[in-house]
Model the fold of this input.
Amino acid sequence: MAEDSDLERTEPPSLKRLEDARKKGQIARSQELTSFSVLMTGMLALSITGPALLNALKQVMRGEFMFTRAVLAEPMQMYLHLIKACEAMLWACLPVFAACAVAAILAPMLMGGWLFSTEALGPNFGRLNPASGIKRMLSVRSIVEMVKAILKSGLIGGVAALVLWNERGDFVQLVAMPPDNGLAYLWGMAKFTLFAVVGAMALIVIIDVPYQLWEYYKNLRMTKEEVRQEMKESEGDPQLKGRIRQLQREAARKRMMSAIPKADVIVTNPTHYAVALQYTESMRAPVVIAKGSFLLAERIIELGKQHKVTVVRTPPLARALYHHAELGEEIPAALYTAAAEVLAYIYQLRHWQRYGGSEPTLNDALPVPKDLDPEAAP
Done:
């Protein structure tokens, strides 16, 4: 029956289903990505603090592990030497530990984000059922996790063993090396081994992250009946409708802002309104690819300047375009002439910037119909 149910779940999860799952603490998460982030951070921290750490280790070897025969007969003296050695190495390794701790805290943001769910903390007596426990142990996910753990251990262990095997000749001679040379050799070998392990972990992460996302959305798939039932239940939910509209507005705004680099010109009020226009030879008329007022207008202007889009101050045209031109559509025919003058000025400006000559100027009295300008004098 469970297999039949899975076969019937052909529809992708809805927004409500995803939000409900998140409230229950169910999110796509890759433990391998977290481990890789911590390991990568530790490797970078070791690369930066390596010289200081190696120097601290040399100082410990000289100061705490070299003593007279009389000290050997004093257990308390040996204990004090050990305490000092551990304390010195702890302080030397503290930056690496701190970096790894920060990475462990921030790593969940890479996939799924931070999540605190009270529902996940609540008691679930179903987990006490032995039959359910055996079923979880024999589930496909458990088997996959077991196989993944075996492969991960084999891959990382194999890489580390291969590195050590290649270094076996020098490793045997380690006891004959002076302390400083021996420590330097061990440090170099440890760094190389760590690099190799990080590379192996990267391969695991590349496979695990897409798999975790696929499995997460697969487990939340819905049947056609569930989709219909959810639509019926949500039709009267104003909060859900508002949330959907908010997400739609945010998505539309992101698409609009991403189109600004394609604009030929941004006409402004200069701060109240901003409208970005695009025109190519294949178009019948210029198209509005972004528009906004006040803070959004400032953001459009800022993005335009970052991408070297010419910003032109034409208050009447900016107001008319903002109020009468729809996003993603051609400008009204009544504004063709004014827009054409602006675009002609832009092309002349580009020619002047490239080849020099006399600097072009824009006509201050653009032909904007008064009935399209909300602030025009009657």
The mean pLDDT is 82. Residues 52 and 373 are 69 Å apart (CA to CA). The longest strand covers residues 287-293.
